[in-house]
UniProtKB/TrEMBL annotation:
<dbReference type="InterPro" id="IPR037523">
    <property type="entry name" value="VOC_core"/>
</dbReference>
<protein>
    <submittedName>
        <fullName>VOC family protein</fullName>
    </submittedName>
</protein>
<dbReference type="InterPro" id="IPR004360">
    <property type="entry name" value="Glyas_Fos-R_dOase_dom"/>
</dbReference>
<dbReference type="Pfam" id="PF00903">
    <property type="entry name" value="Glyoxalase"/>
</dbReference>
<dbReference type="InterPro" id="IPR029068">
    <property type="entry name" value="Glyas_Bleomycin-R_OHBP_Dase"/>
</dbReference>
<feature type="domain" description="VOC">
    <location>
        <begin position="2"/>
        <end position="116"/>
    </location>
</feature>
Length: 216
């Protein structure tokens, strides 16, 4: 499953454009008074301006599985990374066979670079913005995560993420290429103390050749 297009909200379009273009070095492919669209590897990240928006999202980007240390060095020259424990910035997900680092964008959104070691996506070139492969996760907040996950699976032919112990608190739909992370409201977004809140999201996914648009 691939997350081809993700649409979120921001209350500061100008600063958002500056962050993703100047800090992360990504290309803006569309820019007008109401929205911006950013090329993130094989995905498009779109922000719609909403002056009244006062919340945050959590989403992740896949990076080559052999480039996490280089990505850390690259990011540290640009932005502060979140410390997981004992001054270590790397989160290790043994069940998922993945490692990740976290940081904030200008909106306070919780962003993640994740290296998934079951994907064959090694790169030889030094890490830079072109190494970011795609949007790999979007956090979705719902009162009944497991029920919503089952609805998406039944309606759209999706699958539970096999590496995740899906539950009423936290469910994941998709695979290493792309995941819908569904959590209950007020569950803290790891590794922060920020409670998850339900916000408007549009995501376009490709699954086994079928294009699907989901609105939350």
């Amino acid at each position: 499953m691939k997350l081809e297009h993700l649409q979120l909200q921001t209350n500061n379009l100008k600063n958002t454009a500056r962050f993703y273009q100047e800090i992360l070095g990504l290309s803006i492919v569309e820019n007008n008074s109401e929205s911006i669209s950013i090329q993130v590897g094989n995905s498009i990240l779109k922000f719609i301006e909403n002056n009244n928006f006062n919340s945050i999202y959590h989403f992740a980007f896949n990076i080559p599985n052999n480039k996490l240390e280089e990505a850390i060095t690259w990011l540290k020259n640009k932005i502060d990374l979140l410390v997981i424990e004992d001054k270590n910035v790397i989160a290790r997900f043994e069940n998922w066979n993945a490692n990740a680092v976290y940081f904030y964008d200008n909106n306070g959104n919780l962003l993640e670079f994740i290296a998934r070691h079951d994907l064959d996506n090694n790169q030889l070139a030094p890490f830079d913005s072109k190494s970011i492969l795609n949007i790999s996760e979007i956090g979705i907040v719902n009162e009944t995560p497991l029920e919503l996950a089952n609805q998406l699976i039944e309606k759209h032919g999706l699958d539970f993420f096999a590496k995740n112990p899906n539950s009423e608190l936290f469910s994941a739909v998709g695979n290493d290429e792309g995941l819908l992370i569904i959590v209950k409201p007020n569950r803290n977004w790891y590794p922060t103390q920020i409670p998850a809140a339900s916000n408007k999201i549009t995501v376009k996914i490709e699954n086994n050749g079928t294009l699907i648009e989901l609105n939350f």
